[in-house]
Amino acid sequence: MEDMTKEPVSTQQLLDRVFRDPKTKYHLDLFTRQEQNRLQMFERQGRVRIRCMVRGRDFVAKPEEVVRQLVLIHLHYTLGYDIEQLAVEVQVQMGSGVHEKAADVVVYRDPQKLIPYIIVEVKKPGRKDGREQLHSYMNATGAPLGMWTNGKDVAYEFRREPNLFGDLPRLPRADETEDDVREPIRKHMLKPVEDIEGIGDLVELVKRLQEEVLANAGVNVFEEVFKLFFAKLWDEESASDNPASPGSICRFRVTAQPPEEQMKRFQQLLDEAIANHPGIFPKGTRWELSPEAMLVVASVLEPIRLSDTDMELMDHAFEYLLAPESKGDKGQYFTPRQVVKMAVKMLNPRHNERTLDPACGPCGFLIHTLLHVRDTHFRAEFPRNWDTQLQNYGKVHLYAVDFDPRVERVARFMMWVAGDGSANVFRMNSLDEREWKRDPRFLREVAAGGFDVIMTNPPFAGTIRQPQILTRYDLAYKERLVRRRTQETVEVQHDRKRQNTMTRDVLFLERCLRWLAPGGRLAIVLPQGNFNNVGAEYIRREIMRRARILAVVGLHVNTFKPHTGTKTSVLFLQKWSEDEAPAWEDWYQATYDHEAEAEAYRLQVAMRDKLAARKKPIPTELSDLEPPGDPPAPPWDYPIFFATSQRSGRDNSGQYAYLKDENGQVVMEIKTVLAHDVQGAWVEIGRERKKLDCDLNEVAEAFIAWGKEHDLELLS
Fold first, then answer.
1. Which among 226, 59, 64 has a CA at the least distance from the CA of 149?
2. Do 307 and 335 fall into the same domain?
3. Is the pLDDT of residue 666 over 60?
4. For tag attachment on the chain, is the N or C end more exposed, with fewer CB atoms within 10 Å?
């Protein structure tokens, strides 16, 4: 029988016995003294026991059990959750089985214990493990909130989406929502996708969204991801840069509101983005995602600052979304960025020059022109407001054209992300002058020509058959020799005959040369056949007539894989100035005149010899024949830069090929990018990236050295 005359033992004394190490006891300082004194602890048969307020019975007071009871007291007495909402040792269903360890504490939204709200993982003082276990419980039950504690250390978390968790400062009280304790996402808190733990790559992010949500949502993946990026970017643009301002709170975020109410906010963002950036989505565009699916994808995107995401990562994401099979039938392929950067570096566009891409795709050439001019001019000349100056430059000097409506929308978006305002992207067929009249601004600003720089990768596949288009192009006509024989002699004249079909790349070449200003520069990707096929000689002669050949860079056969294995080269030209052009026009005409004379001489000699063999009289016209002499020489000679790429950055299957060291390890390099700091100012950040096994930057550097040696003005 117990001795009832013993002095009552205090809770603190009993805690001292449970936590024999005095230091360990103080690991309970997460809980207030008042909460500790609410513990129902007592001694029975020489052992300290503790009563569970939820299960209504007592247990041996082990350290972990004491911490669990303190958590229950905190949830009930401090945060106000009803006892009926609390459960202990809850079995968690994992697929078809049950997790071997039950959840320590579960708080339900309802007294019927149907909807888990908070999962608590309890460890004895000193233990640090268990966070991954908590995450698995939250994923399995769908509980949005979690708590991990060992009595001293504590972590509060919320679940953005499976396997993606964020921190909370505390748990909400029973009369609060998650929004009351979640710090609202402000603009300065957003990070580039590369800095978000668990993501790091925009393409992988898009694939995850597609596989986990979008593929089963019955929606067009391209359109919905495009809308998400569009609305997200507008939220960043419209939010205040002042962290203290209420306007800095982002609206593209998941809150505790019902899904239907949150959907209204996302729709408002989309409507505002469309109103402020027309031409990308039509007015009245709606989300196709359900409210529940929308919250899942929004929770992934909410911490990302798209406007600071590396443009190459954005490129890769849209290259993935705009699947090759939707473009390959038109001969369109994304230009690898190593080719784009080489062309921009070699042509060196300047801040006061107008630049055009008449087959722009997602605007790779213009985006890198923007970045080139930013780094070579605006950041040095306007250190405080270079971004504003850059946007003004883009609105006045950069122009893009594409006939594909989806690609044109992507081009507008990409130019907006890059910072130019996306004002000069036209959906138009650059080859068909009949279409141009429907847009007076296009006629005035693009069709009138006068561009200083044109860079493009035109579509190769398909042919043009419409006479209404072909008659507008010199290259649709081939020079031919017309022979007329009389009794006395043979006459030969050269004539022009229109072809019934022409490949689009050849017509794009002429269109670019026409739209260039005298002295303007061109980089164009062309099939290799245009450079060496016998039947394409007239094309090469037309090029020489109109422009100086600056360089020819042969691209590796893997460059455009996996989309196509067509062998291509990049042709670099500079249109003759008004003073130079007449001499080359005269040479062009003289060349064809000489061919006619040479053919006439050949036929006349044959006719004379035939008459002589038959012992017939030889007419005077055939008796004194003189050979036509050598073909006319070009007005002047000039050097041409030739290079052939040996390393494309792609392997035979079209996957990226990275440079490796002597040990077979991938070589890493530091890439400097610009991003916003917490004050909204631009700062340089070094990011470690795998180094592509590509030599095109070396080609560009070699061209620059060669050009300076030959005093090329474009490099000054």
1. 64
2. no
3. yes
4. N
Full residue range of the structural domain in which residue 210 is found: 187-312
Neighbours of 606 (CB within 10 A): 11
The Cα–Cα gap between 678 and 26 comes to 37
Domain containing residue 403: CATH number? 3.40.50.150
Structure-token pair, residue 689: 């990236």
Is 276 a residue whose pLDDT tops 80?
yes
Residues 6+ apart with CB under 8 A from 180: 172, 173
Q: Output the CA–CA distances (angstroms, integers) from residue 86 to 69, 223, 289, 299, 587, in the order listed.
A: 12, 44, 35, 27, 94
- Give the integer Cα–Cα distance in Å for 546 and 404: 29
Mean pLDDT of 609-633: 87
Q: Find, among 414, 322, 328, the residue nearest to 364 by Cα.
A: 414
Cα 581 to Cα 452, 635, 639, distances in angstroms: 17, 10, 18
CA distance 337 to 355: 18
Task: Say how many domains are in the chain.
Answer: 3
439, 426 Cβ separation under 8 angstroms? yes
Q: What whole-number distance in Å separates Cα of residue 459 and Cα of residue 358?
A: 11
Determine the Cα–Cα distance for residues 674 and 371; give it in Å rounded to an integer. Answer: 10
Report yes or no: 687 and 200 within 8 Å, Cβ to Cβ: no
**E strand or H helix that includes residue 553:** strand 547-554
- Is there a single domain that holds both residue 379 and residue 522? yes
Pairing of strands 41-44, 502-503: unpaired
Highest mean pLDDT among 150-154, 573-577, 650-654: 573-577
For residue range 557-600, list pLDDT tens digits in order.
999 887 788 899 999 999 999 999 999 999 999 999 898 888 88
d(CA 68, CA 120): 9
The phi and psi torsions of 199 (rounded to 5 degrees) equal -120, -90
Q: Is residue 631 part of a domain?
A: no
Co-location of 203 and 103 in the same domain:
no
